[in-house]
Amino acid sequence: MKKTLPALLGLSTGLLFMALHFEEDFLERIVKKMDAYQQLFIHEKVYLHIDRPHYLPGETIWFSAYATFAASGTADTLSRLVYVDLLNTETQEVLFTRRIRMTDGLGQGDIFLPDDLLAGPYRLRGYTHWMRNFSEEHFFYRDFHILANEPAAAPNPALTSEIDVQFMPEGGYLIQDIDSKVAFKAIDSQGKGIPVTGFVLNQSNDTLAGFRTEHLGMGQFMFKPQADQTYRIQVRKPDGGMASFPFPVVKQEGAVLIVDNLSNKQNVRVFVRSNSADPVEMALIAHNQGDITYANKAAISSKLSLFTIPRSGLGDGITHLTLFDANSRPIAERLLYNRLVEPLTIKIQSSKNTYKIREKVDLTLEVSDADGKPIAGNFSVAVTDGNQASIDANAQHIVSYFRLEADLRGGIEQPASYFDTSNPNAARYLDLLLMTQGWRRFRWEDVLKDQAPEPSYFVEQGITLTGKLVRKNKRAAGIMPLTFTLLQKDSSQMFVTGESIATGEFALYGMDVTDSTDIMIQIADSKKAVDVKIQTDRWMAPPYGKVPFRAMNAQPLATDMLKRAQEYLKIERTIRENREKLLQEVVIKGKKVDPITSDSRRALYKRPSSTLAFTDRNTVGALTIFDVIKNRIPSVQVLGSGPDRIIQIRGNSNLRGTIEPMYMMDGSPVSKDVAMNILPSSVESVDVIVGPAATVYGDQGRGGVINILTKNGNPNQSFSYQETEGSLSTRLMGYDPQREFYAPRYDQQLPEHVRPDYRPTLLWAPRLRTGSDGKATVSFFASDATSTLQIRAEGMARNGMPGVGQAKVVVVE
């Protein structure tokens, strides 16, 4: 804790305040519980800066990952691995997963979108292993659209006249006979804020209060509920129609708080009142990301009491106020924003304002803090064609996410607008937002439990391998010595020794492995290895979850721009295909033999019934070979997902159900588990053998045969992948390798420069570092499009302070 308990328990001042000498027990207990919770459950935040708001099939998503500690806002130095998932929102499937190496809270990666990916809503999700201990709401989400790869604009969802209006009393509840503020939020069928007016009626249809929205469907009004009265709310919709909504719950007894966070620059004033005739002991606690910054007790009665809280002690950002009764029960809560430290200022300057097509553009970033002092830090910069990727200035960015969105439930419309210093109403609208959004970081019920739950997921400081030793009789294998042999890409080997625990479980933590590596696990004592099987755990991505989709509206490209983008992608696709074809032809000409019938790995069946070549395009993002062959080999059905998936070759079943195929690797039998662990990028092709050709494998081949041909070709060149007692060979997924963003240099004469250039992203610089002078430079070349280029830089200083900057340059003929 930044402050001691006595310092937190200062005297309050107010209109009327009865300072009584109660025992400190219940307030001290709350403070200590919070401190213990914060030490056990350190919270992390992850943010992804992507190069554009939407994409076409065949394009690449480029992103930078930023991770911070929630409490301090400083760079996350614990978790060294961030997972980034691409999810299909319509099917709720996890399509691809990237494992991003994090260094001092920074990482980078990309996801290639296959040419056959369907248009529609998609989601990027970022998280650490440790973040899985908490609700899925803590994950980072960036929702977007993959646009239809055709000139016709994608239809917008049908709009209806249906609206929803929610009413939220300040503090949580209305209390009988006490004036309270009531905030409300009106949204349409797409979840967007809409303007409405309305009024509160009693059972006699008398109008007691009127209200109207102020900003993005939000507003507020004062109301005092009376005893023996019932109320209803009527709202006039934008189309002129009327709608009825239930009135908030009114409690007979309790206390309310009214927060004044706008009128005084030095202090936050909190007014508290109960409807109890006698003083009731209560405590007001303020915390910033779990760090308690204010705590005080008072005797609250029907007369108004005031807590005056100095802003300087509250910390920067969202402050959570909670009023507790003497039984340590939270009875009223309110969020407020305390703006003490301004984000970084990022100025982006170009050498001139207007450029010719294919002309070199030089950019200079100049980063400073609120006092104008130069700041050293790491930043990512995207330059996009404004005709193809229009960026909404009020959309999410690193400042709005780290300092606001990451701590609130639900989607926030135009989040960046609350940090627009040119908007005189930004502070008022932000205060209104915090009356209508819920806190997501933790619940007091969890903090105040007598015994905190043990975390289920650990902090990953590298690549992890876990597994278990299992005896054939299912009994625990016990403690056994183990050796781990890792085959590096340069053919060198690394040896690690250890042992399993009493339950047979084992783990390797913190490994520095990129892409994939072969690993052999052996029980060092051959006598103990009898009847013991080694199993490794498969990593499973979290399910899609229940967080609603909330992407910005997809802006369809103009027909001429979409046509140009298609032409550019078609050229890129042709180049990739020709490169793969040329490589195959070179291999065939070198051998001067039939590459299929001469392959010893196909000796028993000569020619497969069908085969699928594994390429860079169809394996990108796939976790298993079954992710690749699914829907690509017509005769093979892949049902389900994860380790429980079922593979069936059509026509191979009987009265007992599905008959799964026999699996081989490079012509040698392997189990389904081994097949599941083979890295797709290491596979050359997969053969499917059915019918008479499969009978040579006897009863094992009655469900067909799947032969996995690896790029190594010779099984002796790598581990054999044969399962034996006391040993297991498998492949370990490491960090995803970092690809370099390609951009042509038109100051050089190259043959490929004759093709047209209509790239939507002209520059992606994922790691641009400013020095002690706060400056960094970067260059790129304009494309063939006459357009306004949009430049956006995001990032953070070494102390975790975020910043964002934007600029534009014009390209002419």
The secondary structure category is mainly beta
Quickly name the level 1 CATH class of the largest domain: Mainly Beta
Unreliable stretches covering 5 or more consecutive residues = 1-24, 582-593, 714-722
Counting structural domains, the number is 6
State the fourth-level CATH superfamily of the largest domain.
Macroglobulin (MG2) domain
Separate helix tally: 9
Q: Any guess at the CATH architecture of the largest domain?
A: Sandwich
- Count the E strands: 48
Q: What proportion strand? A: 35-45%
CATH domain topology of the largest domain? Immunoglobulin-like
- In one word, what is the shape? globular
State the distance separating the first and last CA atoms. 61 Å
Which radius of gyration do the C-alpha atoms yield?
Answer: 31 Å
Mean pLDDT: 85
Main location: membrane
Organism: Arundinibacter roseus
GO molecular function: siderophore uptake transmembrane transporter activity
Family: Belongs to the TonB-dependent receptor family.
